[in-house]
Specification:
The protein is an alpha/beta fold. The protein has one domain: Nucleoside phosphorylase domain (Rossmann fold, 3-Layer(aba) Sandwich), CATH 3.40.50.1580. 28% of the residues lie in helices and 23% in strands. It is built from seven helices and nine strands, in the order ββββαββαβαβαβααα. The protein has helices at 68-77, 135-147, 169-178, 187-196, 222-246, 273-278, 284-289; strands at residues 5-10, 21-26, 39-44, 47-53, 82-91, 101-110, 152-161, 182-184, 201-209. Strands 5-8-7-6-9 form a five-stranded mixed barrel. The protein is globular, with a radius of gyration of 18 Å. The chain starts with a strand and ends with a helix.
């Protein structure tokens, strides 16, 4: 069996993964809340896979009500070494037409009120997030889309908005001015939390629409978005299989595996013991070592 255990977070339109062998849904409890759904555990070839639908099967969770802490913690408890997240996005760039895939390398977090850290008073930590995704996973994800016959671009900036409404035209133009190239509602704080959990994370975005910045285009239509998601999701499944089959036999360490080494600054004698207990999966390596 491979050294990799890949967590797949399925976005809108991707609620299961029939391609998994020996698959079974397992409930994984988290002290951080309720994960979006059970985790579908199985394998693709020799690679262990843990699949979690971000919005739950049947798409029951609003973007702002997805408990990203519980989701990341559940995947960590399921033994994941790395995470590949799939998301439906709108395009803010002429170069990213609907139907195209793109890997994300930067984020602008424009969400409000979402729990964005596992840490708190009594246990303060500051992880580096200058480069918020894993370049190794991102490259492999892009190549996997190509091998599945899809069109893919690399290294886009993603702006996360609160939702659940789509943008106004004025907002869409503002986000373009900020340098955002795709727009979605769920990748933040998901990517932040993956880094705190020392899980290398990549985001493969499926473009469904032009958002609202184009004067000659109609505003976002949910029916058209759903149809594009359906087409994108079929290719995304093929790309996930290709991604898993392309992983090197040996997983060499990533610097992200030790993202917490110098992040915690609270003195050990001041650690909040209740919080330490909740962090057993996310940061247990660090505190067991200490």
């Amino acid at each position: 069996m491979s050294e990799w255990t890949i967590g797949i977070i399925g976005g809108s339109g991707l609620y299961d993964l029939a391609e998994l062998e020996d698959a079974q849904w397992l409930r994984i409890k988290s002290p951080w809340g309720e994960a979006s759904d059970d985790v579908l555990c199985g394998r693709i070839g020799d690679v262990r896979v843990r699949f979690l639908p971000r919005h739950g099967r049947g798409h029951t969770r609003l973007p702002g009500r997805v408990d990203a802490r519980a989701n990341i913690d559940a995947l960590k408890r399921a033994g994941c070494t790395d995470i590949l997240a799939i998301s439906a996005v709108g395009s803010l760039s002429e170069d990213l037409a609907p139907g195209r895939f793109v890997t994300v390398d930067q984020f602008i977090d424009h969400t409000r009120g979402r729990a964005s850290t596992f840490f708190d008073n009594g246990l303060v930590a500051h992880v580096s997030l200058g480069d918020p995704v894993c370049p190794r996973l991102s490259r492999l994800a892009a190549r996997a889309v190509e091998s599945a016959g899809g069109a893919v671009s690399e290294a886009a900036t993603y702006i996360a908005i609160e939702g659940p409404q789509f943008s106004t035209r004025a907002e869409s133009r503002l986000y373009r001015h900020w340098g955002a190239e795709v727009i979605g509602m769920t990748a933040m704080p998901e990517a932040r939390l993956a880094r705190e959990a020392e899980l290398p994370y990549a985001l493969l975005a499926m473009v469904t629409d032009w958002d609202a910045w184009r004067d000659d285009e109609a505003v976002v239509d949910v029916g058209e978005v759903i149809e594009q998601m359906r087409r994108n999701s079929a290719l995304a499944r093929e790309a996930i299989v290709a991604f898993c089959r392309s992983l090197p036999a040996r997983r060499t360490p990533s610097p992200i595996d030790r993202a917490l080494d110098d992040a915690v600054i609270t003195a050990p004698d001041k650690h909040d013991r209740a919080l330490l207990a909740k962090l057993d999966a996310v940061a247990g390596r660090l505190f067991r070592a200490g």
